[in-house]
Amino acid sequence: MSEYISKWQREAIAQRANGCCEYCLMPERFSLFTFHIDHVISLKHGGITHLDNLAYCCGICNSNKGTDLGTFLNNPETIIRFFNPRTDQWLDHFELIEGMIHHHTIIGEATIKIFKFNEVERILERKLLMEGGFIGSFK
Q1: Would you call 126 helix, strand, or coil by DSSP?
Q2: Four-residue CA torsion sign, 5, 6, 7, 9
Q3: Where is each HNH nuclease domain found (predicted)?
Q4: Region of 99 on the Ramachandran plot (φ > 0 left; ψ -120 to 50 alpha; else beta)
Q5: 113 and 5 in contact (C-beta within 8 Å)?
Q6: S-S: 108 plus which of 1, 8, 24, 103, CB 3.0-4.6 Å?
Q7: How confident is the model at residue 2 (pLDDT cuts 50, 70, 90)?
Q8: What residue spans define the domains of the chain?
Q9: pLDDT tens across 6-64, in order?
Q10: What contacts 109, CB < 8 A, 6 or more positions away?
Q11: Residue in 14, 37, 24, 3 with CA at minimum distance from that of residue 125
Q12: With 90 as the cut, is the pLDDT of residue 137 above it?
């Protein structure tokens, strides 16, 4: 169950994100669907409905993330947390080259894996937006 997020909160979150998904960087203006407000740490895990715990995200990232906080990679005994747009810098964990998002850290790797950043359709979409000059390369 989610908590009510006011119109002014939604607008502040969207403005802070420059109208882009804070996880995959997709601009909302090129999406067929409106973006979601994500609880970075879900209510289920003790997160709160406060600007410091809310992120602007596309439906694909929000759906793939769900209420998860992290995942396992190579070691089934160690959970790797996801990228947190409130405390992490995107370029510390990722880079965008020719439509593909590459990781610099295990946090980036875990996020790419679960959020499915590099599914073929998503890569092609980013590549087209880059070719059209709508998004740049992030290195």
Answers
A1: helix
A2: negative
A3: 8-63
A4: left
A5: no
A6: 103
A7: low
A8: 7-131
A9: 999 999 999 999 999 999 999 999 998 999 999 999 999 999 999 999 999 999 999 99
A10: 73, 80, 103
A11: 24
A12: no
Q: Take residue 36 and report the two structure tokens written for it.
A: 């979601």
Q: Are 5 and 11 in contact (CB under 8 A)?
A: no
Long-range contacts of 108-113 (CB under 8 A, 24+ apart): 108/83, 109/73, 109/80, 110/70, 110/71, 110/73, 110/80, 110/81, 110/82, 111/23, 111/82, 111/83, 113/71, 113/73
96 contacts: CB under 8 Å, gap ≥ 6:
25, 102, 126, 130, 135, 137, 138, 139
Q: Could you write out the three-class secondary structure of 60-92?
A: HHHHHHCCCCEEECCCCCCEEECCCCCCCCHHH
User: Measured at the alpha carbon of residue 88, what is the angle toward residues 91 and 72, in degrees to the nearest 5?
Assistant: 95
DSSP labels for 8-74?
HHHHHHHHHTTTB-TTT--BGGG-SS--EEEESS-GGGT--SSGGGEEEE-HHHHHHHTT--EEE-S
1 falls in which pLDDT band (50, 70, 90)?
A: very low
